[in-house]
């Protein structure tokens, strides 16, 4: 069998091929890579979501989220003090309340002394310099696990909006700096803005979950707030279809018209294209929520030795910055802040 003979044609030099534009020059050393790095993770980019439970001096592991704990208010205050010392600008609170306090309307959200409001008052008293972000969705408070009032299998939009607007005022009165409604009801941003302004809370901002998708990545979170076994049906009648991008634009535009000060995309990594499109379209403060499923996947893979967990964590956060985020809600916040301080 005849063997193929390599061509004798002279190859051009690399300098000829590239016109002497060698793009590896600035990658040759650590110092030069650092010098030209386009995006950076800073502690100022981080918002730390925390989970709350009733009682005192007690914490519970969230099984599906290694390293994450539910905390009573007293322990949460201590944790937030630590976060503030690390320079984390804000925390976001999410309650797990006792089943006995849940009903089909989520009425406990209107209790001025509910778990969210107690935590806000305690945190702002002990750590006034840190921002507190509260969610007014009903799902932690409903017996059916939905974000709205449920009647005959239908989520009642307008009744839900009225209730969460009242709840937003109570949260502002407790000291919340930012109200972040995640329920995706039509008109909620305008109703909350009106209610806050009418009650003297003009300085309280609104972070809209402008594009919250009907995602498979929320599972561990629902376990964390105790709704995993309660949800009847799904949330597709009010969350956005993961296949849609134009709808995300319309939702965001509406929320900004109604008075949102900043917008959020949730989940995060599967929707980087949405983040980029919203930032380019609206040029407003834009955030992403690196949700429980995203966190759990990185942690689980790292625990099994399949990936380098720290590198994957930082790479995932850089992806948000590269896509256009001004900040990220992430359960990695303290871990990242400690690494940045080291």
Automatic annotation (TrEMBL):
<dbReference type="InterPro" id="IPR001731">
    <property type="entry name" value="ALAD"/>
</dbReference>
<comment type="pathway">
    <text>Porphyrin-containing compound metabolism; protoporphyrin-IX biosynthesis; coproporphyrinogen-III from 5-aminolevulinate: step 1/4.</text>
</comment>
<keyword id="KW-0627">Porphyrin biosynthesis</keyword>
<protein>
    <recommendedName>
        <fullName>Delta-aminolevulinic acid dehydratase</fullName>
        <ecNumber>4.2.1.24</ecNumber>
    </recommendedName>
</protein>
<dbReference type="InterPro" id="IPR013785">
    <property type="entry name" value="Aldolase_TIM"/>
</dbReference>
<dbReference type="GO" id="GO:0004655">
    <property type="term" value="F:porphobilinogen synthase activity"/>
</dbReference>
<keyword id="KW-0456">Lyase</keyword>
<dbReference type="InterPro" id="IPR030656">
    <property type="entry name" value="ALAD_AS"/>
</dbReference>
<comment type="similarity">
    <text>Belongs to the ALAD family.</text>
</comment>
<keyword id="KW-0350">Heme biosynthesis</keyword>
<comment type="subunit">
    <text>Homooctamer.</text>
</comment>
<dbReference type="Pfam" id="PF00490">
    <property type="entry name" value="ALAD"/>
</dbReference>
């Amino acid at each position: 069998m005849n063997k193929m003979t390599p061509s004798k044609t002279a190859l051009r030099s690399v300098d000829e091929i590239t016109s002497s534009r060698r793009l590896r020059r600035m990658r040759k050393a650590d110092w030069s890579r650092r010098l030209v790095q386009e995006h950076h993770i800073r502690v100022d980019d981080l918002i730390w979501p925390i989970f709350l439970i009733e009682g005192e001096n007690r914490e519970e592991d969230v099984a599906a989220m290694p390293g994450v704990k539910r905390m009573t208010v007293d322990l949460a205050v201590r944790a937030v003090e630590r976060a503030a010392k690390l320079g984390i600008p804000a925390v976001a609170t999410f309650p797990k309340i006792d089943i006995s306090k849940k009903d089909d309307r989520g009425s406990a959200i209107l209790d001025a002394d509910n778990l969210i409001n107690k935590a806000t008052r305690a945190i702002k008293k002990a750590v006034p310099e840190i921002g507190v972000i509260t969610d007014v969705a009903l799902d932690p408070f409903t017996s059916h696990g939905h974000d709205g009032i449920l009647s005959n299998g239908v989520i009642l939009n307008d009744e839900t909006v009225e209730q969460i607007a009242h709840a937003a005022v109570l949260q502002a009165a407790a000291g919340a700096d930012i109200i972040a409604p995640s329920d995706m009801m039509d008109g909620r941003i305008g109703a909350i803005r009106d209610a806050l302004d009418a009650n003297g809370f003009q300085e309280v901002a609104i972070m809209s979950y402008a594009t919250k998708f009907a995602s498979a990545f929320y599972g561990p979170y629902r376990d964390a707030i105790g709704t995993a076994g309660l949800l009847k049906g799904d949330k597709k009648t009010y969350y956005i279809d993961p296949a849609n991008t134009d709808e995300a634009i319309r939702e965001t535009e509406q929320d900004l018209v109604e008075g949102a000060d900043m917008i959020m995309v949730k989940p995060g990594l599967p929707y980087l294209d949405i983040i980029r499109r919203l930032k380019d379209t609206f040029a407003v403060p834009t955030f992403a929520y690196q949700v429980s499923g995203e966190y759990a996947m990185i942690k689980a893979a790292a625990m099994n030795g399949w990936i380098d967990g720290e590198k994957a964590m930082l790479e995932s956060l850089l992806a948000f910055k590269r896509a256009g985020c001004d900040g990220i809600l992430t359960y990695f916040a303290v871990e990242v802040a400690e690494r940045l301080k080291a």
